[in-house]
Amino acid sequence: MKPSPFTYHAPATPAELADLLGTLEDARVIAGGQSLMPMMNFRFVQPAHLIDLNTVQGLDYVERRGDVLEIGAATRQRFLQRSGEIAQSMPILQEALSHVGHRQTRARGTIGGSLCHFDPSAELVNMAALHDATLTLTSAAGDREVSFAEFGVGYLTTSVQPEEFLSAVRLAVWPRHHGHGFEEFAFRHGDFAICAVSCLMTLDPGGTIERLAIAVSGVTETPVRLTQWEADLRGARPDAETAAALASAAAGIEAMSDAYVSAAYRTHLARVLTRRAFLKAAERAKEKASA
Amino acid sequence: MTDTRTLSITVNGTQYTREIETRRTLADFLRLDLKLTGTHLGCEHGVCGACTVRVEGQAVRSCLMLAVQANGKSVATVEGLARDGNLSPLQNQFWEHHGLQCGFCTPGVLMTMEEFLEENPNPTEADVRDALSGNICRCTGYQSIVDAVLATAAQARGE
Ligand code: FES
Ligand code: FES
């Protein structure tokens, strides 16, 4: 239960980091280490070189730019959870973060680390899907922007190339009057969710749905957005009937199964949690409309 | 070939400089190099919380951090809580309320709750339970731990 030997590198700037990634063979970047360190302790992962992101300057920040919130990849989850900017513009992110691990892991864990680990039911991966994230991948050759769909390839797999690192994430900010709902089920608080569902909604003056986003994770290898339904439900009433229809759609996603959780149970959770998240978002959107 | 670095670190107010292997975890550094065995290792993969120490004031899992990553930083462990042979208020309440049985999880729980109480002088029982979620205790039962933490907060408020 100790890491195997590696050569440790502590670059000071993004350029140094990119140079190292471009020249070293079999290198891993360590951010908060809350997923990589366990894998190294178990020796599931035995990199020849370990490059520390924690010594790199300028990768932890939260910046609002118009309708976009840009977050540096090395920003700690604990910092995000306490950010006044996020509390105001993206309350669902704070709610989701309260389910990410525990206070001791959030103190080290970063948003970029969680996204690059790409666990199918990680809350921050769900948030990236929900907010139409775009991600900046940096290498010695420069930056390239990828959409969330291009970023996530499959189970624990992203399109980040060996010579690249994730440097920033941009999330779409919704109008102030949006409502949000986040629901998840985990065996123990702080565990990865078996299933998590998030929902954002705005209502038009008549009280019908103006804009809707729903992300379901833990059911398949990458989070699923109910894109067609989001479009079709424009103008619908945000009531129990609509919730039921949407819940059935979520239950229609073909679910994976493993030794602990059957596909049928994931499907059941997707249905229940989608209904709850939708109704919660509707309730909050109504409150804001009448405020 | 062994990859080593010079680590300079402050632990419980004392400054240490040591040549260490870069793959050394902070937990192993504390226990094996500094012989501060109060920090316990239960799982070594970030699940149990027994190894919790404070780095620059923040409670973190020392099995998931490399010692080199604490270079230049200040670390607090359970050995630093008692002063001149007197238990800290939190330790005292653990004693009063039977907050430990075997004591294996206790160092991690104490370091977590020290940080928590500094941030939340007025916690509810639900707050304490939430903050405790990252620490597993297999024998005392959480109720007496929660009681001890709430009693410490009440005592600090002069109640
Ligand atoms: S030993 Fe570090 S969390 Fe269990
Ligand atoms: S006191 Fe024995 S594990 Fe907590």
From TrEMBL, chain A:
Keyword Metal-binding (UniProt): no
GO molecular function: FAD binding; oxidoreductase activity
Domain of life: Bacteria
Annotated keywords: FAD, Flavoprotein, Oxidoreductase
Alphabetical list of Pfam families matching this protein: CO_deh_flav_C, FAD_binding_5
Domain FAD-binding PCMH-type: 1-176
SUPFAM superfamilies xref list: CO dehydrogenase flavoprotein C-terminal domain-like, FAD-binding/transporter-associated domain-like
Key word Acetylation present: no
PROSITE patterns assigned to the protein according to its UniProt record, in alphabetical order: FAD_PCMH
Protein name, per record: Xanthine dehydrogenase family protein subunit M
Originating species: Pelagibacterium lacus
UniProtKB/TrEMBL annotation, chain B:
Pfam families: Fer2 (PF00111), Fer2_2 (PF01799)
InterPro entries named in the record: 2Fe-2S-bd, 2Fe-2S-bd_dom_sf, 2Fe-2S_ferredoxin-like_sf, 2Fe-2S_ferredoxin-type, 2Fe2S_fd_BS, Beta-grasp_dom_sf, Diverse_Oxidoreductases
UniProtKB keywords: 2Fe-2S, Iron, Iron-sulfur, Metal-binding, Oxidoreductase
Keyword check for Oxidoreductase: yes
Molecular function terms from GO: 2 iron, 2 sulfur cluster binding; metal ion binding; oxidoreductase activity
PROSITE patterns in the cross-refs: 2FE2S_FER_1, 2FE2S_FER_2
Domain 2Fe-2S ferredoxin-type as annotated: residue spans: 5-81
SUPFAM superfamilies: 2Fe-2S ferredoxin-like, CO dehydrogenase ISP C-domain like
Name this polypeptide is given: (2Fe-2S)-binding protein
Species annotation: Pelagibacterium lacus
Lineage summary: Bacteria, Pseudomonadati, Pseudomonadota, Alphaproteobacteria, Hyphomicrobiales
